[in-house]
């Protein structure tokens, strides 16, 4: 992930880096996560904190756990 340690990345950066590692555009992640609006992915990558349901959709699409993208949210 660009040489930065995972634990120093923000949730927005984790989502963006995971998406880029897959070689996906924001539109592709939107499609694969079954999200209705590409604007949501853009907002998340800009720092918007999604709810648990959306966190789960993103994580499932990217093949990771929600806690790996949003560790601050997991107790």
Short characterization:
The chain is mainly α. It has helices at 11-22, 26-32, 38-45, 52-62, 66-69. The N and C termini lie far apart (24 Å).
The tally of strands reads: 0
Order of helices and strands: HHHHH
What share of the residues lie within helices? 55-70%
- Helix-strand makeup class: mainly alpha
What low-confidence regions span 5 or more consecutive residues with pLDDT below 50?
none
- Assembly type of the chains comes to single chain
Rg over CA atoms = 11 Å
- The portion of residues forming beta strands comes to under 5%
Coarse morphology? globular
State the end-to-end CA separation.
24 Å
Biggest sheet descriptor: none
Tally of contiguous helical segments: 5
Question: Averaged pLDDT, please?
Answer: 89
Describe this structure in words.
The chain has five helices and no strands. It has 75 residues and is mainly α. Helix 2 crosses helix 3.
């Amino acid at each position: 992930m660009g040489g930065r340690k995972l634990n120093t990345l923000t949730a927005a950066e984790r989502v963006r880096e995971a998406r880029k590692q897959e070689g996906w555009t924001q539109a592709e992640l939107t499609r694969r996560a079954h999200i209705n609006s590409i604007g949501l992915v853009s907002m998340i990558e800009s720092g918007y904190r999604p709810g648990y349901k959306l966190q789960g959709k993103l994580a499932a699409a990217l093949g990771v756990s929600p806690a790996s993208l949003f560790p601050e949210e997991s107790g």
